[in-house]
Design goal:
Pfam families: Aminotran_5. By secondary structure, this protein is an alpha/beta fold. The chain has helices at residues 5-10, 36-48, 58-78, 91-105, 124-127, 179-188, 208-211, 235-240, 264-269, 271-283, 290-316, 345-353, 367-372, 392-405, and strands spanning 24-25, 85-88, 111-115, 135-139, 161-167, 192-196, 215-219, 229-233, 322-324, 336-341, 357-358, 360-362, 381-385. The two termini are 35 Å apart.
Length: 406
């Protein structure tokens, strides 16, 4: 089974936008185009439901129902219980709130394992707990490949470790980490697990229940939705951590770690992400419950992306003055390709823009990973990132432009 690209692209108004014609979008790791389903729901909420939700009158009741629908349907796709899913203003903010909960949950002398492969949003808040007497242990990447070796985690685990934090995949290395195996190692040592899924979820929603971590975070604006952070906290941990919300909401799991009032319209619009998954599943003959449809769509996306990615990796391999971060094979990595060049990454991105290629250059908040691999964050990298709605023609446009710019 292959993706019907005409159907896929018809679901994204950006591809019909006159101002974007002739330009190929390769900065999806920073934020994806938005599905028409999401835009329609967001527009409807602002037009017809922009009142305080959960009240007795019609507009309020419908607004609350749409917010509940988003949580119910996305939780089902992710393979978790409805109240184990929370929405927040961003993944960065959600992680910060979680770190404050662990600050009160842990005792001085206990430890957290973090990596230097992470985006700063999933490592900085945990590292700052050292100020509270929490020991921070760093699980280091290989300086050449950027690989995060599970064998290197084993010596860091003992009875003091309460939490292990790592990315599903890095936003500059791109390699997909074996979440299930790493989670099993951490759980065997008595530690909880927090996975940053921001750079993975755009390539297919994972079955978090099957993967097994206690916390899984990603950003809806990178998964074709509105600007919200999506956070799964499994019940056992969520009920054990200190409540960070209003005291009278402490008995509601999905409110315990969202101290700020939710953006009602954007929460409701997240149901549009589930609409999109359902539409893709129906069009491609994928049946079953929400998790089964999500898994089928996930595999469709990943297969399409891998087929487009390998020719790009082959083209870049061995090119003078170009260092490709992460694996050389599409299998096992996301279509996020960071290139360390002789000059600044931002300069290369500017030159590519003249060829209709929209991508970026910089450190991408992965300073620790770049430094570990011997790359100056001030110089940064050129990052090319795409997702399932990218076409073969756009990949050819990219490779032709790279030929000229590099």
């Amino acid at each position: 089974m292959t993706l019907d690209m005409n159907f896929v692209r018809a679901q994204f108004p950006a591809f019909a936008e006159p101002s974007l014609q002739g330009q190929a979008f390769f900065e999806n790791a920073g934020g994806s185009y938005t599905s028409g389903f999401v835009i329609d729901r967001l527009e409807r909420f602002y037009r017809a439901r922009k009142v305080q939700p959960y009240g007795p009158y019609e507009a309020s009741r419908l607004g609350g129902e749409e917010m509940d629908e988003a949580r119910t349907r996305m939780a089902a796709i992710l393979g978790v219980e409805r109240d184990e899913l929370s929405f927040g203003p961003s993944t960065t903010a959600n992680t910060y709130v979680l770190a404050q909960a662990f600050r009160r949950f842990m005792k001085p002398g206990e430890a957290i394992v973090v990596t230097n492969q992470d985006h700063e949003a999933n490592t900085g808040p945990w590292r700052r707990l050292a100020e509270e007497g929490i020991e921070i242990r760093e699980w280091k990447i290989d300086p050449e490949s950027g690989h995060l070796d599970p064998d290197d985690l084993e010596p860091l685990l003992d009875e003091k470790v309460r939490l292990v934090c790592f990315p599903h995949c890095s936003n500059v290395v791109g390699e997909v980490n074996p979440v299930t195996g790493i989670t099993a190692m951490a759980h065997a040592a008595g530690a909880f697990v927090c996975v940053d899924g921001v750079s993975y979820a755009p390539h297919g929603f994972p079955d978090v229940g099957e993967l097994g971590p206690d916390i899984y975070l990603f950003s809806a604006y990178k998964t074709f939705g509105p600007h919200q952070g999506v956070m799964v906290i499994r019940r056992g941990l969520g009920e054990a951590l200190p409540n960070q919300g209003h005291y009278f909401n402490a008995d509601t799991l999905y409110k315990r770690f969202t101290p700020a009032g939710p953006d009602h319209a954007q929460v409701a619009a997240c149901a549009g992400m589930a609409d999109y998954v359902d539409a893709l599943a129906a069009h491609h003959g994928i049946s079953g419950d929400a998790a089964a449809k999500g898994a089928g769509v996930h595999d469709l996306m990943r297969d399409h992306e891998s087929a487009l990615l390998q020719p790009l990796l082959d083209m870049l391999r061995g090119r003078n003055g170009v260092r490709v971060l992460g694996p050389e094979k599409a299998e096992g990595r996301a279509p996020t390709v960071a290139l360390a060049l002789q000059g600044p990454g931002a300069e290369a991105a500017e030159k590519l823009a003249a060829h209709g290629i929209m991508c970026g250059g910089g450190d991408f908040y992965a300073n620790r990973a770049l430094e570990a691999m011997g790359i100056d964050p001030q110089k940064g990298v050129l990052r090319i990132s795409f997702t399932h709605y990218t076409t073969e023609a756009e990949m050819q446009q990219l490779m032709d432009a790279l030929d000229q710019v590099l």
